[in-house]
């Protein structure tokens, strides 16, 4: 298993074979593959390949993967495919991105919001007081925004149900 084989499979769009090689790289924790994996992680539009790479980077455990994973989480091309990217963050120190995780907790779909909450919960008492306060304020603001929307929709329902 070498990077040239993987690159060839990716270039030929042989995704299943590429994923197999990626899994082998992760199993063997081949750290010298990290720069190439990060490059492919950021450049691919194939969510299956991207997920396999993210998990491989997570398994290898190189902290260099955190920033690219966070950038991808924020990128529109990953909408609908962010759960695995969030899962890939688990072994890393993602504490400087708690604000981003709160955003995903508030705005993400079911899987993304729950996964973001689990990552936040895993921080536990390690979260700085100031950071915790900012997160609490953000969640309270989201609750208020949603309450305003519920009030508006309730009024709209009243209008629509009038005979």
Q: Per DSSP, what share of the residues sits in E-state strands of 2 or more residues?
A: under 5%
Report the uncertain regions.
none
State the helical fraction. Answer: over 70%
Outline: flat
Number of strands: 0
Largest sheet: none
Task: Work out the helix count.
Answer: 9
- Classification by helices and strands: mainly alpha
How far is the first residue's CA from the last residue's CA? 71 Å
Compute the average pLDDT.
93
What is the ordering of alpha helices and beta strands?
HHHHHHHHH
CA-atom Rg in angstroms? 20 Å
Give an overview of the whole structure.
The mean pLDDT is 93. The chain is built from 9 helices and no strands. The protein is mostly helical and 163 residues long. Helix 1 runs antiparallel to helix 2, helix 3 packs antiparallel against helix 4 (47-60) and helix 7 runs parallel beside helix 9 (129-161). It is 73% helix and 0% strand.
Put the structure in a nutshell.
By secondary structure, this protein is mainly α. 73% of the residues lie in helices and 0% in strands. α3 packs antiparallel against α4 (47-60), α7 runs antiparallel to α8 and α7 runs parallel beside α9.
């Amino acid at each position: 298993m070498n990077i040239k084989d993987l690159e060839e499979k990716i270039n030929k769009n042989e995704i299943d074979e590429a994923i197999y090689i990626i899994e082998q790289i992760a199993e063997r924790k081949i750290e010298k593959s990290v720069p190439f994996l990060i490059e492919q992680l950021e450049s691919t539009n194939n969510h299956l390949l991207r997920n396999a790479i993210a998990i491989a980077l997570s398994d290898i455990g190189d902290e260099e993967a955190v920033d690219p994973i966070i950038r991808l989480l924020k990128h529109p091309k990953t909408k609908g495919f962010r759960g695995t990217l969030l899962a890939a963050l688990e072994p890393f120190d993602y504490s400087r991105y708690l604000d981003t995780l709160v955003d995903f907790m508030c705005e993400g779909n079911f899987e993304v919001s729950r996964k973001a909450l689990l990552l936040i919960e895993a921080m536990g008492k390690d979260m700085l007081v100031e950071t915790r306060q900012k997160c609490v304020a953000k969640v309270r603001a989201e609750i208020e925004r949603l309450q305003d929307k519920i009030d508006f929709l309730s009024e709209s329902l009243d209008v629509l149900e009038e005979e």
